[in-house]
User: Fold these one by one.
Assistant:
Number 1:
Amino acid sequence: MKKIFKLTDEKKHEDRVLEAVKHEIRKYVKREKKKKLDDAQNTYWDFDCKIGVTPDTAKVVEYDALIKELDAVKADGATDCYIEILAKVVQKPTKETDLEEDAAE
């Protein structure tokens, strides 16, 4: 998802507009996580995120910090916000207990 969100609306309170943007972000991530993985036991969905006032000034952030960065952009007085979230498949890290069991056999 690559989108420029309006953070102000004449007919709505600014906090409600911000909450609507956050809801849309969470809804998108939830929808992406529901997609089937080829190897669900060894992979999971991860997200590359960027946020900024414009696409050129957007900086890379972790998904966990995206909402806090959105609040910071709003606190700076921006009326628009560019958000980019791209889903990617990532290998799960191997567990040490699995490695120890394999070595014991």
Number 2:
Amino acid sequence: MAIDLINIKERESEDDTQFVHAERQDIQINNQRIVVNVSGLRFETYIKTLETFPNTLLGSSNTRMKFYDEEKNELFFNRSRSCFEHILYYYQSGGTIRYPPNIPIEIFIEEIEFFCLNPELISQIRKENLSKPKEKDVLPEKLLRKRLWLIIEYPESSLGARIFAAWSICVIMVSITMFCIETLPQYSVTTITTNSNNVTTKNHYIKQEYEKSFFAIETACIVWFSFELVARFILSPQKCHFAKNLLNVIDLLSITPYFITLATKEFYNNEASSIEVIRVIRLVRVFRIFKLSRHSKGLQILGKTLKTSLREMVMLGFFLCVIVVLFSSAVYFAEFHLSDTQFNSIPDAFWWAVVTITTVGYGDIRPIGLWGKIVGALCAVAGVLTIALPVPVIVSNFNHFYQLETEKKKILRNDTEAGNEHKSHISAKSKVSPSNESKI
């Protein structure tokens, strides 16, 4: 009997030992960390965090071991780094996914499918991303106005729209080319006049034998620009939105100098005030080059990028102002004791500081002494570092808008193809129906 009790106690102690050993083993597994290498970028987390979702690729020990590298003792995936940060957050947060706005939605969804996350996340992300930020374009209700509006405003909608856009680009290029050519010496003449107050003014005129030709070409371009602007305004379904659109404001500014110049010449002839007004107005004509942004998605993306990165640009401008004042003061006092110094005051050194910070280095103003050169070298290095700071943010914003534009093109292309298939199906059905009626 005593022997049986001893055996029972030994078995109980063995069971307790096995239980404690198993419990310690579970604790070690739960506390065991795993390294995930995603295209060279290593992430480290606990195995128990991944096994919170056992039906996913990383949560299942069998599936994730297919990507295990024994030599480096890590999992390796040749996938998107920026996407995986949000994939890992899904495990760490207990099932919450955050869509990064700087990553195209199709790429992010592809990563979700690869790592076998909850399929409901895909529909949730599509609903939040596609329905909320993108507004549907408003089109005129009447069929004729709608077709004309598509031709004028959407160059990729049809062959006629592409021809219209190509012709508009040609007219813009002709106008800009003539604006530049009329300043060549063989087509222009420069006169210097002195008025009664001994004020000398330099005037620029087109030679008389070429004046009519330049005026005729300029008038033809203005007629087209005016027709285009008026047609857009008449056909526009939203007049208030049309007036607030920056591209339409640029169109208006591009034709305004022509009419102001005519009025100024008509009423004031060759008075000095008229010449000054015309000189300023001629400068405004250069804004016509921005009309190309209507037909260039790249320029539109660049404009949106600069608008989105305005905060970073302001920050960069503030840093540049601080550095300009700092190094202008430093180089002034470093060169102050030299007789042939070119830095007569701190404001005089502002130009040198800006040119040095941007690493242009014209060389018209430069330090001569040793300490001045040391300040110049530090100024150049500081400029490179300062300008490089906001560049990644601006590039990221540009990539974001570029991907959005690419996705929008795909959607429009798919809609167009679906519409063409629907039309061909209807036409085929209408061709078949008469034969069926004859049989009946």
Number 3:
Amino acid sequence: MCGFAAVFGHIFPIFSGLKGGKGVGSLIGVLLALFPLAFPLCLLVGVAVITTTGYVSLGSITAAIALPIIILILPRLGLINPNLSLVVFSLLVPWIIIYTHRSNISRIRNGTENRFKKAILFGKKN
């Protein structure tokens, strides 16, 4: 619950007229603090997408989408204890991250989204 509040508060801060960030920075903090085994796996997914496409927003979205999959796999491997609040958090977060990145998604679809070309290691840079 506190992790969700941190991410949601980053996106909709009351002191800034409910206009904040996209929630990825605070999500990284929550993952590091509460789910340290899930963080490197989500990071790996995000970095793989960024180094292939150059789209940081797509890497963030993909990492968020990977979170519930990772959270469902880790207990089956015996690496973390299954926890309902953890599963609920991991299922809600991707929807929030997708919502905050909707303008980025639109720009990617239109071909106008900026790319981090220096990060592209495995795809086409043009």
